[in-house]
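Each record in this resource describes a single protein on a pair of labelled lines. With that in mind, the following record should read easily:

===
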Amino acid sequence: MTAGLDTRTVRIPIDVGTPSPPEPPLWAARGKRIVTARRSKIRYRVVEIQDIGTAFERILSYYQPRVRPNEGPRFKSFKSSDHVFVFRILTNDLIFDPIFDVCSPATFLLFSRTCRIAYTAVHSYIKRAFNINRHLSQYFHDPLAFRSLQARTSTLVSGSSALQFFNRLTYDDSDLDIYVPLKSRQEVGRWILGQGYTFKPNSVQHKDLDVALEEVHNDLNVYYTLSGVSSVFTFKKRSEHDPGRELQVQVIVASQAPMEVILNFHSSVVLNVIAWDAAYSLYPHATFERRLSLFLLGRKRDESAIQKYENRGWKMLYDIPLRDPTHVSPDFTFAPRWIGDGHSWTIRLPTEGIVLPSGANEHSAALTRDPCIATDWQLTGSQTIPEIWCTVVKHPNFRYMYVTARRRLLHEIWDSQIRVGTAEDTEERKT
């Protein structure tokens, strides 16, 4: 992405009667203007977008409206030749793909708001640029089989790999980190072994994968500093496309819920998640627009992680900046947050060819979304020592464990568990 970009106002003509494109996400439109004006038979939509350099300026120059004599500066007339940009450039992906490649996400999402043709062009680009099957194919021959495994086991992809997916870049020194519920560790571990990978045990793990998987329990492991982790299994193999590169897949086994582990990451830059049905960036405006990352572990700093992401172009924040003495930066609000809210960036992924998980029993329908969609959290602490607060919810009647910061919901679940336990005790005494 290009640093230090200016803000430009682009005026796009829209045919009268054409419905407006869908609104951009809340985080993408932050601080931008979208204004509609009308004169005679021409309707304009004015959008503030970022100047992405000489290439975009030259293409926009094809589309500079001509001003008639004695016409005021506010409204300009458009002739058929002025539609070159809209009808020639935006319909040719060989031209607009390189342009959007250097745009920030908010830039092309806002640009899609200008007219229906721009909307079609941007969303055509999104399908190509955010191709999850292509992204995963560097690790697995059959990405759809892996995503079907995700659907069955509620496995999530996060860390550097998810960041690369959203950032449309590849880091040579990165691996694939997948986060697995405790009960699914054996199925996932054996599946990866079947993809040609070799298990690389650490100093405390058994050399046989089946034995090592069997030895894992739901107690937190003192060997891992990341909260909520029971064990980590490392798999490696040589890349078939690049024999000089060694591929590495790490299976991080969560003692409870994978999202608990992810929300305990060191900083906001890596709070990105890929499920089988969608990808979510939790702090997209700070991460991809401002290139900021908020350190979330209080006073305990992971210097190696900080250095790695600073080298990749992010500025690390150790406290939350104020817009003014009474308002906290909207990038890092203390208000309740949840996956898929207006501050998140959600990319729905194609699910054709994925084997969906079955229902919990014959009376329940199969899930059509990954259970991580039910996650919510809250930034707490202070501006100088921010941290994410959430807790894991589990219940005898729940198929999955969930992560939430809603205290009222927690109390209701705890009360229901007490009532269930009391009723069972009463029945036992009667018998």
About this structure: The chain is about 30% helix and 20% strand. The longest strand covers residues 229-238. Residues 133-366 form one domain.
